[in-house]
Amino acid sequence: MSHDPIAETSPDAGVASENQERRPVRRALDRLDRTTSVFIVLSLLFGGFFALAVPIGWGPDETAHFDRAYQVASGGFAPERLPDSDGLPQYGGRVPRSAVDLVRYAGPPRQYRGAWQPLVQQDPAFAAAASRPLDSPLVVTAFPNTAAYSPVAYLPAAAAVEIGRALDLSVGHTWTLMRLVQVLLYTVVAGVGVFALRRNPFRWVVLAVALLPTAVYQSGVVSADAVTNAVVLTYLALLTRVLMLTPRDDRPVARRWVLGIVLACALVLPLLKPTYAILLLLLLALPFTRRDEDGRRRVRRNLVVPVASVVVVAAVALLWWSRLSAGTADAMGWLRQPSQRHLVQPGNQLAFVLSHPVDAVGIGLRTLLTLDWSYVSSFFGQLGYAPGGNLSAPALGAVCTLVVVGLGLAYGTRRRIARWRTAGMTLVWLASVAAVFGTLYLAFSPLRLPIVTGVQGRYFVPLTVLLCAVLLQLLPRMRRVTPTALRRSEIAVFALCAAALVLAAVKYVTVMYVPGYHA
To answer: Rounded to whole angstroms, how far apart are CA atoms 209 and 220?
Structure first.
């Protein structure tokens, strides 16, 4: 008989499967494995910690993300252009006066009262500003760096704004509620990716990436990255399962719910960050044909039609939003120093890259050689603003994460796939990384600057799953794995993931709230 890896059902399907279909949520809860349970607990615990411990406005560009989320909650889906100033376009919108007054206290203070005083202090003026009503008179505020984001990335935060309005919460309490709702959504969506790999030790890789202090911290502050990281991570984890991971019965199984979530994630990828639209190319690696009883290949129409439909809709959405937000790139000069403000010219920068491709490659290599360690530190543990720049998690936490990834790659089981698929996945990863650098060079770096500015390691967090999937194909497979070794490794994985987050939390509290450690 022909073997259909896409439409296959489990061998014990029967009368019980009909009852399971009636209760999908309960069935999922009953099958919740230890890895998924640990992820849920740690994500909620430490995501909630950062949501409550990080002072309001201290997250990366958090005030601009708050403004954009409030704009979305008020029905402002498209970027709103404000009157031009200093010869540059400007984008923003109307936000509550109470929020504008509150963000005056955001970020590290410019002057310190003394090294032996805590960095974050109880300020009566801040407490008074945070207690003001959310629905205060609206004022026009510029936020060009977040105006380009589509509403999809802010739906959880916008929902929290609506809840805050309904409950008549203060601006400070609403801000905290936005953070907590994002933590919940990140945990649920990323948890699906961890749960989907519950039968394969490669799940430890996804667990380590999802519990990176950087990712958990970003889920605990108002940001578009909470939704983006969760969706991209789950999309890549489920695609990895479909393409190469082997379940217990050594047969490639892809349930309908797996394919449904993959296509749902693919549909919104271009609306989260246009650079991640390149990941849609991974859908081309799906097995669109199968061999029937007489040995002939047949097109699997039940897969081709939905995938093609999703790709078309996603491409249309990308073109539509790119056209709608095209003008925001010309406003990015507002994020530079006044002397460089008029040097951010995306059109002229693109012309320079196209006419000098060798120089463009050299700029990219120079950037990697110059700023590589800053990318590493911000990848493993960027914890928001701090004196002198961003606060990074302890290096020991990065070691813990690397050990977990190594265990996931060592014990992960997989089936060999065609070399062209592995090569294609590698090229997609390289193109996605290059797209991040290229976008920031065109839209953020001053004209002909010999280095790319604005790149941060946290932008590559979800792409790590794809890189590890490629490595899983290239590395040799362990021949003998005993159940005892798996159990001990699993315990070590859980302990190391928790240790990385504990170290990050301890350092954050120490630097922010213990006197003398911020100097």
So the answer is: 16
Asked if 466 and 206 count as a contact pair (C-beta separation under 8 A), the reply is: no
Q: 199 with 37: CB under 8 angstroms?
A: no
For the entire predicted model, the pTM comes to: 0.88
Secondary structure (3-state) at 361: helix
Give me the half-sphere count of Cα atoms (radius 13 Å) on the Cβ side of residue 205: 33
Amino acid found at 471:
L
Evaluate whether 265 touches 236 at the Cβ level (below 8 Å). Answer: no
Torsion angle of the four alpha carbons 490, 492, 496, 499, in this order, in degrees rounded to the nearest 10? 120
| 519 residues of the chain, pLDDT tens digit each | 444 444 443 434 444 444 544 455 556 555 678 899 999 999 999 999 999 999 988 888 899 999 999 999 998 888 888 888 877 888 888 999 988 888 887 776 666 656 677 777 777 888 888 888 888 888 998 888 888 899 999 999 999 999 999 998 999 999 999 999 999 999 999 999 999 888 888 999 999 999 999 999 999 999 999 999 999 999 999 999 888 764 433 344 467 888 889 999 999 999 998 889 999 999 988 887 777 666 677 777 778 888 889 999 999 999 998 888 888 888 887 777 777 777 777 888 888 888 888 988 888 899 988 888 888 988 998 888 777 678 888 999 999 999 999 999 988 887 778 888 889 999 999 999 999 998 888 888 888 788 888 888 889 999 999 999 999 888 887 777 788 888 888 999 999 999 999 999 999 998 888 877 665
**Angle made by CA atoms 404, 410, 412, in degrees to the nearest 5:** 95
Amino acid at 474: L
| Locus of tokens 């709702």 | 181
**Exposure letters 428-441 (e unless 16+ CB within 10 A, then b):** bbeebbebbbbbbb
The C-alpha atoms of residue 233 and residue 384 are separated, in whole angstroms, by 21
- Give Dmax (Cα) for the chain: 82
Q: Look at residues 97, 73, 66, 71 and name the one whose alpha carbon lies nearest to residue 82.
A: 71
Spatial contact of 94 and 138, defined as CB atoms under 8 Å apart = yes
